[in-house]
């Protein structure tokens, strides 16, 4: 029979709990920080202590202790002893950031073989001390040692800033599974995560201090954790300058709450009551991705020729990809299942789901507070395929009749997938459509097309744009181009002016651009401007998204598998494009079908010239 103070309950083993699912050392440390904040601490200090042993020629100083100290309420003997039992947490209620109150032993033995806890309610010199030692457990220790009076070691007292009349210190030693070796490396990697996990609590006045230590002397780099906001709406924050003191994103979308970028849903919990869930969204400000925004230049030490994603703040954003799940002001997870990880534009949007602890079962919150499994599974949920022809409302009713556990979240997932992410992504494409990044992708084709046009001028009568140029002044042509770019294609005046100046100065008579035209069935549109043949790729047509955009994506960071998948997807789209034309011909009456066939043959000859083929095949295809 399991005793009152047994280290593990009958259905658990220490060996199993060593692999308790913590994603990293930083996630395990976050459990200790949770305990301090849950105990009403306003200061939590993280100490990472390197050994004073001199490293060998190629080795580095190695971390030998990690400790978390808080100035919270402290624990009485019973609570302290229970806190080191597996499966016997002291906080079963659903309030605050706690889940089951079992994080202390779970997180500790996932990283170390010994954990010591000192806790006091009447000064650190009157602390109570107990511990877990996996070596002793392996030799037969069955109960958590009874807490004994044991003053907090003077070394920790000397390092601490917030030592108060009550508090707790958790010390890890015999660090067998910590993933980083040095104190500063451990602090830096931990800072990114805990700054994100506790960003809201930090902005509300909670302090999480980071202290790298060698021996018992503080190293340079002692600092308070700054908020790391994946929505990039907080300031100040840990985002690199200039966005450390001002938001890098802005709220996005009208929302239904009267607040920009905030959508509210009511979700029924397992208790039959409805609870609010807030979906927040944001998008990068133009100055984060462009160097030409008046009054907002990039810092002098950042080259304006850099791709936005290669800037310090762009690299920072690349580490915050995903949908942030917030529970009781604490982040559970940054879920990357909703992200096209190979697409660099994904770093420039943010989405946050904010829900209360009462919805833990609905979202599938895990005991270690690192994920919400039911919500995460829905990242790959495609309701149309599963609905098998049913309408959205009919499909929801089917899920209701079947008692499907996903039902409470379907409306939120539908909003995110069908409305929110699509709008964010399209707005991001519009944001940079006239910049150097997108223009350079077209310039290679424009240059080769220009050479083909020159050859055509020697072999064919003047084209329409050539004739119009003879009847129009250069200034009139520029004005017509400007009106087309700004009014028709919604480029900014600055972008339009720059594009016109670039093409005119280079003597080009061909311009390729991207534009949104949801009302047009054509996948590209042609404008005959005096001296300028302008081709606009329709970004709202599937040919653009399935073929052109797939091939135009940056390859930085893409794996061989990603690239192979893109090529296969683009090849399929191109073949379907050709088959669609074939079917178009097939459905025509006899005379229009003959005209379509001749047009196809003529277009084939032109394509041969523009693609640089040496021998055009003039034979028809009968």
Automatic annotation (TrEMBL):
Sorted alphabetically, which InterPro entries does this protein's record hold? HATPase_C_sf
Q: SUPFAM superfamilies in the record, alphabetically?
A: ATPase domain of HSP90 chaperone/DNA topoisomerase II/histidine kinase
Composition-biased stretches (Basic and acidic residues): 467-478
Q: Where is this region: Disordered?
A: 428-480
Give the transmembrane ranges. Answer: none
Q: Which UniProt keywords apply?
A: ATP-binding, Nucleotide-binding
What would be one Pfam family of this protein? HATPase_c_3
In terms of domain of life, where is this protein from? Bacteria
| A GO molecular function held by the record | ATP binding
Name by which UniProt lists this protein? ATP-binding protein
Which source organism does the UniProt entry give? Streptomyces salyersiae
